Recover the amino acids of this structure.
DNA sequence: GTATGTGCAAAGGTTTTGCCCCAAC
DNA sequence: GTTGGGGCAAAACCTTTGCACATAC
């Protein structure tokens, strides 16, 4: 289920020279168990159910650490605040301009294309995000109806 | 030069039922003349050179209006705040993880692909953003050197 | 003339920071 | 025992809002 479960997070953290604290483990578990696309405040609220003393600043600091060790990734899905997801195989997002719903889809555009772009601009590409905006079926119906 | 110059902004605004105020024209000119990827505060500082009384809230409100009438577009290039650019032909961004430099490139991946994705997920796609992250030539040199 | 837009100041929400104590190593 | 990490509160930021006045139409 969790993308990181093959290597426990404690190990990943220690290998990166960071300490494996219960807060860090909890925050990552929270992201795993409650689905992706959570923002800092949502992670905070959910995690506090298990650890009522957790502070919001710890959530932010942990997010930084988890980003740094490459376990999670920051998303900018819509105009609002930052959201996070566990780093997995490249998938991308369709965001409905009507209701805000996010549909994930697997990377369909060729590795070759990205490789060519890297060559052309002398740029070593380490990640690709394709965001599509538009209207989902329900919103289109509402609008036409 | 400016993408909107074919139709003056005043006309676009009026056609959308909004008033064409000097502030709105100035803010769009500022984006045009100073290049894209500006954030609200940068637009504010630059525009105030010509109109010292301009307020930051007007910049934010104007950004909303210009987005609404489809003249500019919001970008989420990096972790920081929102940036804006004049809406033109679809181009995408390579963002250097080292120095933050942004390279623009034209949409090279097939319209067909996007069309197929829309069909598959029953989603009417109105816009596509491809963001590539990685390292530019200079940063790679610095890192290896 | 009227409704929409602006400036100002204040509020709101998100994210960061300083400081001191605590716990992972 | 050290050093990095956490909690708390305050600050810093970015963005939005309320209100009274101004101005585009």
């Amino acid at each position: 289920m969790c993308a990181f479960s093959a290597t426990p997070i404690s190990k990943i953290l220690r290998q990166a020279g960071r300490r494996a604290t219960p807060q860090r483990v909890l925050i990552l578990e929270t992201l795993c168990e409650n689905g992706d696309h959570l923002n800092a405040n949502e992670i905070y609220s959910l995690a506090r159910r298990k650890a009522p003393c957790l502070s919001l600043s710890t959530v932010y600091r942990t997010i930084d650490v988890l980003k740094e060790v490459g376990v999670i990734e920051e998303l900018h899905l819509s105009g609002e605040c930052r959201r996070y997801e566990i780093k997995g195989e490249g998938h991308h997002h369709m965001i409905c301009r009507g209701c805000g719903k996010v549909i994930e889809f697997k990377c369909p555009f060729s590795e070759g294309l990205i490789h060519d772009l890297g060559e052309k601009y002398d740029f070593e590409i380490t990640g690709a995000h394709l965001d599509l905006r538009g209207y989902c079926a329900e919103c289109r119906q509402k609008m036409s109806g």
The radius of gyration of chain A is 18 Å. Chain A touches chain B at residues 74, 76, 79, 82, 94, 96-97, 103, 105, 108-109, 113-114, 117-118, 120-137, 140 (CB under 8 Å).
